[in-house]
């Protein structure tokens, strides 16, 4: 089989790799049919990551199951499934409490798309091994488009987590979104659907702002801190100065969720945060725990994740098109690949 491999700044290529084997009665083999780049992939491709190439890229996809181990009960060959970005067993203490990004059965931060916690391959591959099929794979609800939900592995479901629980606890909250990619736009869509009273989206890209406005957000190219302006701030830029802007715009006891992948150090206004009473979470998402709720929201018809998809491209275009600067390209291929040998 082939796996798409990051080899240098703005350069990826197909490389041959052995076809994955089940190796366990709990495992499955899947074939991605709609895969997309995460916002952090864009940073890696631009040369801003902290990992040296080469490595297999990709950690967001909807896939078709091609083979399963004898103990797998939740999915079967032919099913369309969401493949979470992180590897999790479902049975260790961390997994049972929802901390699936910290599974104790595998090395810390084991994941697809980067050689962290071992080499698990990437989801821009012809075939992928899922070691804990029942724990990890989430069937795609009938009626949901795999292209629209290609990001449910990470960015879409992460965006749900960034705002949905907070809007449940604080109905009508005012939301600030400081962003550069798809996460911020998904957040605008979700926050509007769940009843935010005000959404301000800050992004220098005019096309992104236009899309945010269609979701009901006010927009700005840049702002100065708005003292006590928002109950919830979401920062997804990877820039510490923008994270500082977000926390400096919070109301007393406000919450800031950072999904910015900060590869560089910086300073935060800690005294101001202390005096305001800010809660700040900077966290890689335990996505498996809330993929079902995020998919249920998508299936409700009150949100439109498909509108964030910027391009739908053929699978064979991956080496040439992935390094280009697209907001959210989805790469698709034949949805009925040959069944893997058992």
TrEMBL record:
Stored SUPFAM superfamilies: GroES-like, NAD(P)-binding Rossmann-fold domains
Record keywords, A-Z: Metal-binding, Zinc
Domain Alcohol dehydrogenase-like N-terminal intervals: 27-139
Cofactor(s) demanded: Zn(2+)
InterPro entries for this protein: ADH-like_C, ADH-like_N, GroES-like_sf, NAD(P)-bd_dom_sf
Ranges where the Alcohol dehydrogenase-like C-terminal domain occurs: 183-298
Extent of the signal sequence: none
UniProt superkingdom: Bacteria
PANTHER family: ALCOHOL DEHYDROGENASE (ZN-DEPENDENT)-RELATED, ZINC-TYPE ALCOHOL DEHYDROGENASE-LIKE
Record-given protein name: Zinc-binding dehydrogenase
Species of provenance: Streptomyces coeruleoprunus
